[in-house]
Design brief:
The protein is built from 18 helices and 15 strands. Helix 14 runs antiparallel to helix 15 and helix 17 runs antiparallel to helix 18. The protein binds 5'-O-[(L-methionyl)-sulphamoyl]adenosine. 5'-O-[(L-methionyl)-sulphamoyl]adenosine binds next to strand 1, helix 1, helix 7 and strand 11.
């Protein structure tokens, strides 16, 4: 039998007191995918965390007059608090300052050194301090850092190097023979043509010019330099090379690393090469998503377009923010974020379609049947289509989620609710109610609506968990297993619904 396990990761974030909506994007999507897999019966492990070493943190801590560890300890809660406010349910939050992580990185470094993949040399290059990246002349854009556009400076130091080129052929072979490894496909071509084919340079993997990093235990002047430390989190989090590697045995290789497009390079070149050198299997997929941008540009505090995501959550609700991140942008592309777009999306789908449907259906059931779930044998000519569309949705969602077409999967679920609204227009329950001889049809119509809402809410749960729970509360049902969406009729007769309460109110759009 196939081992139904699923290990999904986000990048580990640089600790910051200023996370923006773009940072939430990766994490919301990873959370929804993890919840979806869990609901589909997979033994799921989902990690996120923080990437806490490096010169930048060392400098900031100095400015603040505290040690780097004190500095990161202070701001780390910001990330945890933000993830909580978005309903992110990770299984582990890994910090690169965790003792277990540090020990694993030291062992990895030593092993690679002992077997000759890492050697000692001297680095001279062009260094961008904010990005902690060395660049070659040809990689600069107008003489500046190609990532952030800032000045770079000449730097020399004794350093250890990782001979990536030893593994280049094997890597290309792997990428070519596993088309699912780098997604979307456009990013695969970019990696091969722009980075691997021109020749992989040896990677600088230690520094002596700052101290805030994992010490190289056999050469005390050096700390492990950023990517070897950061990427190792995906296996140190599972206990690789520790006394307890149960999770590692169970969950490695990762099924999915979700990363922003600018770090695909590190995840599809350095990371698989590290794993090959460690003789470990490679992750099944690295998905490079696009950025949320504002007015076409990156979101940042300095550009003045920054707002704490918690302000949106407070104003419009956690699920409205989740819905926007999951639904608005084709997964893989860049997409524009604005408060107006968030409001419009919430109004159009969550208030007008879903909220309105749930509210008026439960209100009708209260008005006509005193909140009690009833049913009759009398059908209407519109039932069959509604029922068959509702029942086939799970399969459509599964197909889209297999391809990580998250917005399409959500839209397929919304289609149930749109179909229900159409069914209300077709069957006109308020007219049926006026005609005593048609009350049996009215019972059927309201039941079909309530049951379609129940099924839709189960499918929606990984994406908008709170909304689904609220729908189940109003429906007063415990029939919420995924198994129960396969057959129409799970909502038990005689159930007494709770009084209707609006789940999404229309937000006033001041610009309208
Ligand atoms: N620490 C590294 C990752 C190491 S993984 C072994 C890092 N951290 S980060 O904090 O800069 O970025 C974390 C993630 O947030 C990245 O995937 C990045 O693409 C994502 N985003 C940052 N700004 C973003 C947007 N505006 N939109 C979407 N995602 C964005 O990189």
């Amino acid at each position: 039998m196939e081992n139904k396990k699923f290990y999904v990761t986000t990048p580990i974030y640089y600790p910051s007191a200023n996370f923006h909506i773009g940072h939430c994007y990766t994490t919301i999507i990873a959370d929804a995918i993890a919840r979806y897999k869990k609901q589909n019966g997979y033994d799921t492990f989902f990690i996120t965390g923080s990437d806490e070493h490096g010169l930048k943190i060392e400098k900031k801590a100095k400015e603040a007059g505290v040690t780097p560890k004190e500095y990161v300890d202070r701001i780390i809660e910001n990330a945890k608090d933000l993830w909580k406010s978005l309903g992110i349910e990770y299984d582990k939050f890994i910090r690169t300052t965790d003792e277990e992580h540090v020990a694993t990185v030291q062992k990895i470094f030593k092993k690679l050194y002992d077997q000759g993949d890492i050697y000692k040399g001297e680095y001279s290059g062009l260094y961008c301090t904010p990005c902690e990246s060395f660049w070659t002349e040809s990689q600069l854009v107008d003489g500046k850092c190609p990532d952030c556009g800032r000045d770079v400076e000449e730097a020399h130091e004794e350093a250890y190097f990782f001979k990536l080129s030893n593994y280049a052929d094997r890597l290309v072979e792997h990428i070519e023979s596993h088309p699912e490894f780098i997604q979307p496909t456009s990013r695969k071509n970019e990696m091969i043509n722009n980075f691997i084919k021109p020749g992989l340079e040896d990677l600088c993997v230690s520094r002596t010019s700052f101290k805030w990093g994992v010490p190289v235990d056999f050469d005390s002047n050096h700390v492990v330099y950023v990517w070897v430390d950061a990427l190792s989190n995906y296996i140190s989090a599972l206990g690789y090379l520790s006394d307890n590697d149960e999770l590692f045995k169970k969950f490695w290789p990762a099924d999915l690393h979700i990363v922003g497009k600018e770090i695909v390079r590190f995840h599809t070149i350095i990371w698989p090469i590290m794993l090959m050198a460690l003789d470990l299997p490679l992750p099944k997929q690295v998905f490079g998503h696009g950025w949320l941008v504002i007015d076409g540009g990156k979101i940042s505090k300095s550009s003045g377009n920054y707002k704490d995501p918690r302000e949106y959550i407070e104003a419009y609700g956690k699920d409205a923010v989740r819905y926007f991140a999951l639904r608005e942008v084709p997964f893989g592309n860049d997409g524009n974020f604005s408060e107006i777009a968030l409001i419009n999306r919430t109004n159009a789908d969550l208030a007008n379609v879903l909220g309105n449907l749930v509210n008026r259906t439960i209100a009708m059931n209260k008005k006509y049947f005193n909140n009690v779930v009833v049913k009759s044998d009398k059908s209407t000519e519109f039932d069959e289509e509604l029922i068959s569309e509702t029942l086939k949705t799970k399969e459509i969602v599964d197909k889209y989620m297999d391809e990580l077409k998250v917005p399409e999967a959500i839209d397929a679920i919304m289609e149930i609710f749109r179909r229900c609204n159409k069914y209300i227009d077709e069957t006109t329950p308020w007219l049926l109610a006026k005609d005593e001889s048609r009350h049996d049809e009215l019972k059927t119509v309201i039941y079909n609506l309530l049951e379609s809402i129940r099924i839709g809410a189960i499918l929606l749960r990984p994406f908008l968990p709170d909304t689904s729970e609220e729908i189940f509360r109003q429906l007063n049902t415990q029939k919420t297993s995924l198994e129960s969406v396969k057959e129409f009729g799970g909502l038990s007769l005689g159930t007494v619904l709770n009084d209707p309460e609006p789940i999404f109110k229309r937000i006033e759009n001041k610009e309208e």
